[in-house]
Recover the amino acids of this structure.
């Protein structure tokens, strides 16, 4: 229906409990390995300076971890790369803290937790840690956050002819809010996108008028079930792991789907 | 430097703030220097400050088919959509291009978190009360999903939430989608409502003034928080050749600190550079600058360092003394103010400033005035060092 956006994937990052990087997740998605026992319960986020890492909430560490993996694999200096961070719900544990504190004793709200509560906290910490002075964004589209965020990042890359870092991350919710969000497991992924032809795995995106198709079952269904927000991201990663067909049609808006085609 | 872009027409726009509902109320207040701040009568516990509260939000009931979206933020969005023939203009764009060829990109910092706060105040044995067991409003995308439902726009739909630059960046995202041919039009804007999170949150950071905010005053001591809904319909110029235009935009990151700006305004300068380059103009061509001007000691000090880049004749003002800082809605609200300045040839005054900072004084407009405005610029700088700058210009002659 529209001119496809032609991109290349130069780097991939991923983190889930039991799959601390893309290599581990790829092996799981191919059915070659099980989730790692004894893997770290929290993402390392080593790119953040120690002081920032202590202050940073889990969603920020998760985003920094997968973003650093993707830029590292691409061998690109993150300082030069515009970035788009997508999340369905943002920092759910902090939202729970903020709402609980406001209900109980509003004047006790912690200033650090308040500034960590903004949806662009991952973009903020990332740009500070990497010295990135380009455009950075934080976007959401509820259950369509992955496809909508990917389109935003891809459009930026193609319109401005620049590499763009795209990350999609959600952390587990806590407290009474959990019943509304149903996200019980942290999952994050990142792609370093380059526009145009050349090296790398090709990713073509196009808008399709009409409904998406059901996302194919993935090899690690527990992640899709317990982090429904990022089930769509896992579907694309399964394609990239070579475990599924090379085409995917994900829901984008109430009238559109996003067609994705992978060519190794 | 980015390349010059093809300007886009702002085919329709509207704003609703503490100054009133719709464009005429905004214009009349800006022209006459009448502000909209009042004593805080909103927060769930006492907090001494002034707020920019929109009158009548509580009465803006949603129609029955949209009632499941009900919350203060979506009521304000609905109220904003009813002004200035906006719904007809949107319907016109949908009819011209098709509903999937229109994008919907809105900025918000807190969306409907006020409803989530309310649920936590009224927990029923640890669970949300029944009337608030609606997952679709306990998410930052609540606003965009509601507006899509209310307007019938079915194209790409995205929430941008980069704190106070959110609804400036929506213009940039829309321009890229239109330039790439993915859509033919976009409804952009921003809506943020008063809630405990921002009132007590900014208070915890010691950034809220007890009095009405005083941007660029030597005695300034913090922000006043407001709420607003502002929208703009962007299309290619041939769809509305005489409408005012989006000429350019710039986006950047400070890479400095989560809650204080870079001391030399590095990110702000970069956003301004990119905006001027995309517009294909020099800073000397700018007639009016709507400053971010939050009235925190730090923001205004850093932003004043940008002013010497403009000609002596350029007039600059922060309008936060009129409306308060409307956070995620500020970018779009102040874009509409820049468009009003162009359309009516007015310079909105920098309300609330009695003793201007010497370094800003040569450019600051302290009184309302009338003059031709061909090019107007609007700055928005947010938490996390997230910056955006927009450039608007006159449309083609009749």
């Amino acid at each position: 229906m529209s001119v496809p956006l032609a991109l290349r994937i130069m780097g991939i990052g991923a983190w889930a409990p039991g799959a601390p990087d893309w290599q581990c997740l790829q092996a799981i998605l191919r059915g070659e390995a099980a989730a790692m026992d004894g893997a770290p319960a929290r993402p390392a986020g080593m790119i953040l300076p120690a002081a920032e890492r202590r202050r940073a909430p889990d969603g920020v560490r998760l985003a920094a971890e997968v973003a650093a993996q993707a830029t590292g694999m691409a061998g690109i200096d993150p300082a030069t790369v515009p970035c788009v961070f997508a999340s369905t719900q943002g920092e759910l544990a902090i939202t729970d803290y903020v709402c609980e504190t406001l209900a109980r004793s509003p004047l006790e709200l912690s200033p650090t937790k308040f500034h960590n509560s903004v949806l662009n906290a991952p973009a903020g910490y990332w740009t500070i840690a990497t010295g990135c002075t380009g455009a950075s964004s934080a976007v959401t589209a509820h259950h369509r956050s992955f496809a909508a965020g990917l389109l935003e990042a891809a459009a930026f890359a193609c319109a401005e002819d620049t590499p763009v870092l795209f990350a999609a991350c959600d952390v587990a919710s806590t407290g009474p809010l959990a019943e509304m969000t149903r996200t019980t497991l942290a999952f994050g992924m990142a792609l370093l996108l380059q526009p145009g032809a050349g090296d790398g795995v090709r990713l073509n995106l196009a808008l399709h008028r009409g409904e998406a198709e059901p996302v194919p079952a993935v090899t690690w269904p527990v992640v899709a079930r317990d982090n429904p927000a990022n089930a769509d991201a896992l579907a694309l990663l399964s394609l990239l792991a070579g475990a599924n067909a090379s085409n995917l049609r994900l829901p984008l808006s109430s009238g559109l789907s996003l067609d994705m085609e992978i060519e190794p | 430097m980015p390349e010059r872009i093809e300007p886009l027409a702002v085919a329709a726009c509207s704003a609703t703030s503490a100054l009133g509902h719709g464009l005429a109320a905004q214009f009349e207040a800006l022209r006459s220097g009448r502000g909209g701040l009042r004593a805080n009568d909103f927060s769930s516990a006492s907090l001494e400050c002034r707020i920019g509260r929109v009158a009548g939000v509580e009465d803006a009931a949603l129609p029955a088919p949209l009632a499941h979206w009900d919350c203060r933020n979506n009521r304000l969005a609905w109220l904003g959509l009813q002004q200035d023939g906006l719904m007809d203009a949107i319907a016109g764009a949908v009819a011209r291009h098709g509903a999937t060829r229109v994008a919907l990109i809105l900025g918000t910092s807190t969306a409907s978190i006020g409803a989530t706060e309310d649920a936590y105040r009224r927990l029923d044995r640890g669970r949300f009360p029944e009337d608030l067991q609606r997952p679709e409003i306990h998410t930052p995308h609540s606003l965009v999903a509601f507006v899509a439902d209310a307007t019938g726009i079915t194209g790409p739909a995205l929430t941008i939430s980069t704190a106070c630059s959110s609804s400036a960046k929506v213009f940039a995202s829309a321009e890229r989608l239109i330039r790439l041919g993915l859509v033919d039009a976009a409804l952009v804007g921003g809506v943020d409502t008063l809630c405990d999170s921002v009132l007590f949150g900014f208070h915890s950071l010691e950034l809220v003034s007890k009095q009405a905010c005083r941007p660029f005053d030597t005695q300034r001591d913090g922000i006043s928080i407001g709420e607003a809904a502002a929208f703009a319909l962007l299309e290619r110029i041939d769809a509305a050749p005489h409408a005012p235009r989006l000429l350019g935009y710039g986006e950047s990151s400070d890479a400095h600190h989560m809650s204080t700006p870079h001391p030399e305004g590095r990110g702000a300068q970069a956003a301004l550079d990119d905006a001027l380059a995309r517009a294909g103009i020099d800073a000397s061509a700018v007639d009016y600058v709507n400053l971010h001007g939050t009235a925190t000691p730090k923001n205004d000090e850093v932003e004043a360092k940008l002013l010497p880049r403009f000609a002596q004749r350029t007039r600059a003002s922060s309008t936060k003394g009129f409306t308060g800082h409307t956070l995620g809605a500020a970018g779009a609200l102040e874009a509409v103010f820049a468009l009003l300045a162009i359309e009516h040839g007015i310079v909105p005054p920098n309300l609330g400033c009695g003793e201007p900072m010497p370094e800003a004084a040569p450019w600051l407009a302290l009184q309302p005035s009338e003059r031709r405005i061909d090019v107007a610029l609007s700055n928005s700088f947010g938490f996390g060092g997230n910056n955006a700058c927009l450039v608007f210009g006159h449309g083609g002659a009749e």
In short: The two ends of chain A are 24 Å apart (CA to CA). Chain A has one domain: 11-199. Chain A touches chain B through 68 residues (CB under 8 Å). Residues 26 and 241 of chain A are 5 Å apart (CA to CA).
